[in-house]
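Per reviewer request, we include the raw input and output of the structure prediction for the construct analysed in the revised manuscript.
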Amino acid sequence: MSGDAGNILRTFIAIDLPAPVLDALATTQDQLQKHLRGAGCDRAVRWSPVKNLHLTLRFLGDTNARQREQVV
């Protein structure tokens, strides 16, 4: 993909989760963080902010601009 290497993005098709699901996930994530902190292994996990959570339907991998236009 010469000439387009600077425009490569890791791409996926996803849907946003409804607010009640995000709220439930936030509660569960908080409980897990507290449990792991209490067990002394909280540094073993890198947590994503709940606002960034989504349901990935298909991971496309590295794509260039032309490929992304075709998907859209």
